[in-house]
Amino acid sequence: MLIQNATLADGRRRDVRVEGERIAAVERRLSPRDGESVVDADDKLLLPGMIDAHVHFREPGFPDKETWASGSRAAAAGGVTTVVDQPNTEPPTIDGERVAEKAALAADSLVDFGISGGVTPDWDPDELLAEPLFALGEVFLADSTGEMGIDADLFTDAVAAATEHGIAVTVHAEDADEFDESVRPSSEDAGDGQRQGADERTDTDAWSAFRTPEAEHAAVERACRVGEELGAQLHIAHTSTPGGIDRAKEAGVTCEVTPHHLLLSRDDLPELGTFGRMNPPLRSEQRREGVFERVADGTVDIVATDHAPHTRAEKDAAIWDAPSGVPGVETALPLLLAEAREGRLSYERVRDLTAATPAAVFDLPRKGRIEAGNDANLALFDPDATREIRGEQLHSKAGWTPFEGWDGIFPEWTMVRGETVYRNDEDEAFGDARGENVRSG
Asked: What domain of life does the native source organism fall in (predicted)?
C-alpha cells in the first residue's frame, strides 16, 4: 500500500509506503509501483496506532462483560493497535498456566497485545516471571475488582523479584489506610444486608469521598520509596491527582492518566450516578484541571484507558454495591483528538501520550512512530469529522459509556502490521484476528 499526502502529527505532509508488516518508506513524494494499492490521504491525519497500556478484557472468567474478540474490535474501532491486559481476571494471571490460558484466548484479538502478570499471596514468582510478560502488575496496593490487594512486605518482595528479572512493575496506587471509613456503611449486626449507620452516605459522590486523594498520595509515596531502594522500573497506573503525578515525577517514575480522570470530575457524578464509580474515583474539578495541565505540558507520560467494562445491570445499583470501572478503549483516542481539534492539546502531544511514549517506556522499539522499519500499526483520521459518542454504537460488550453525547474523532480505518482490521464504512467491516504477543519472539 502507498498512502499519499498524509499529514503527520507534527504537521509534515508525507507519503508512507507499507510493505508486508512494516513501514518501508516515509518520504515527501513516492511514486506508485505496479500493483500497489494507493490511498489518497489528502487533508487526513495519519497517526501511529494507540498503545493502550492498561485494559481489562475480562477473559478468562467474565465473557459476559468482555472477550478478546469484542474488546479488540472496540480497540480497532478507536484507532488502538496494541493493548496490555491486566491480571485480575478469574482465575488471576499469577503463574505460567494462567499466562498460557490467557494467551490462547488472545488469539481472537484483532490487535497486538501484551499480558501482564499479577501478585497475590499464592503467586509463583519464579514460574510467572519466566513467562513473556509485558510487565508485572497492575500490582494492587488496595483492593479493587478481583480483590488482589497485597500488603507492604509482599509488594516489596514482588518489586525485588521483577527487578531481578528485568521486568517493569505497574502499580495501582491507593492506600486503604487513608480511606474515609466514616462515609461507608457499617456491616456490624447487618443481618441480611449492610446496616445504615448514622454517618453513612448514599449519594453518588460517596465513593469519591471514601477513596480519598490522600490514599493515592500515600501509596505513590510508598511505591516510589520501594522503587528507589531497589532500583526498579516502576510505572504508576491511572494517577488521578496532581499530587500523585508530581510525586511520581520527582522520583523519576513514569505515570499514566485515564481519559475519565482527564475529562470528568465529581461535578459529573449527579448525571453519571453509579456509572461514574471507578478506582481511583473521580476527583474535584480543581484537581481534574490540575491533571489536565500536567497532561498538556508534558509532565504526564502516557494516557491509558483502564478499560474496565461491566454490564448495565451490574452498574445500575446502589453506590456501595455497583462494581468499579468504566469502558474506554474505543473512545480514548477520539476524545483526545477532539480536544486537539479545539486547541487544548496538540496533535503531537496526542501522538506522544498514546503511542510514542508508551513504546519508549515499555521497550517496544518497532511501535509508536511512523518511521521506516517500524510495524505498520496505523490509523487514519479526518480531523474535521466529529461524531457524537453513543454507547449503543460502540463495540464493547458493555454497551454504554461515561462520555455519552460527547464529540469524538474516530478513525476511517485502522491497520495492524500492514493489514486493515477496521474500516468505518457502511458495513463497519472488521478484518481477521491479527494480534500477536509483543513480548514473544
From this structure: Archaea
- Tens-place pLDDT, residues 310-365: 999 999 999 999 999 999 999 999 999 999 999 999 999 999 999 999 999 999 99
Q: Which of 306, 321, 384, 432 is catalytic?
A: 306
Torsion of CA 426, 427, 428, 432, to 10 degrees: -150
Structural domain boundaries, residue 162: 50-367
pLDDT tens digits for range 84-133: 999 999 999 999 999 999 999 999 999 999 999 999 998 999 999 999 99
Q: Is 306 assigned a catalytic role?
A: yes
Q: Check if the beta carbon of residue 2 is closer than 8 Å to that of residue 32.
A: yes
307 belongs to an annotated ligand binding site: no
Say if residue 56 carries a ligand binding annotation: yes
Number of domains in the chain: 1
* Residue 98 belongs to some domain of the structure: yes
- For the record, the C-alpha cell of 54 comes out as 492498561
Please indicate if the annotation marks 214 as binding a ligand.
no
CATH number at residue 105: 3.20.20.140
Whether residue 395 is annotated as binding a ligand: the answer is no
With respect to residue 403, please indicate whether it lies within any of the assigned structural domains: no
